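User: Assemble these into one structure.

Assistant: Restating your components, then the assembled model:
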Amino acid sequence: MDPYSLKKLNALRMNRQAAVHVTDLGDGRDRVIEESDVVAGLLGKAVLRAFRQGKAFTAEVDGRTFFLNPHLPPPRLVVIGAVHISQALAPMARLSGFDLHIVDPRTAFSTPERFPDTRLSADWPETVLAQEPLDPYTAVAALTHDPKIDDHALIAALKADCFYVGALGSRKTHAARIERLKQAGLSDKQIARIHAPIGLDIGAANPPEIAVATLAQIIEALRKRGLQVAGARAA
Amino acid sequence: MAEPENPMKKQDPLATAEAWMASGRDVAIATVIETWGSAPRPTGSHLVIDADGNFEGSVSGGCVEGAVIAEAAEVLETGEPRMLEFGVADETAWRVGLSCGGRIRVYVERLG
């Protein structure tokens, strides 16, 4: 491995940026490819597959054997609102491998008693997200119903191109939300990325069931994320 | 409360490799290239080894690390990368093998 490749790869991983390390197994030469890099031909297709699947594999290209080792940032889930749905969502999200963070400025909701073993910030999303910016490997679920708390996080999530953005609320609530987000300068295309009402349509009838529907939708967005990436490349 | 996720803070062979390199140590990197059947560590897993035989990370559940570390010493000396294969169906099974019955291919190269 080239020392320069190792330094570049580690720097990208440190910054939560995706990279694929490609090694020619014939001569040992290697390079680090970022998600914004354009790689031509069959190797390019293999690189896209590596970013999409997040699993390492070998590929034969023009009689040469390449090993592609993707390094994707661990997925994060930022939940706005220390509400009942979040109480059910927290342990399930943790089991599913998400680095979970719950943000709610209402100190009566954000208590360690209600959220054992969960990373909790009893502060405004404005403050928390300024310290820990969102990124494309982060999902945001806004669950408070309160525009004062939810809106800033939703705007930040759309601007950061989070892989999933969901918001709780009826269709009527969401229509009002769309108006506010337009006022805030977001485009229709950006706003259309919000999953609202939140969660897969499984007829969820109580907070734990809504949590299941939401987590399922987040996992779907994560695992099918590559299809969007591929589309963006082709465009 | 859990700390923010930082991949470099956990046991991280590639971060270790960089730190060892910075302190002037010769480093070999072993990578799982392919697995068949039940393999304990997925493809892409790393084991890094220095010239004194210090190591971090793993390419199996501990079954073949000893053999990989021995090969790494030679890779460091010659600078030539090597492809190793381990498994019960392999002729090296008498020496080291994977008790789980799987088979893995490991690429060992020098850093730099």
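Chain B touches chain A at residues 1-2, 4-8, 14-15, 17-18, 21, 29, 31-34, 42-44, 81, 83, 107, 109-112 (CB under 8 Å).
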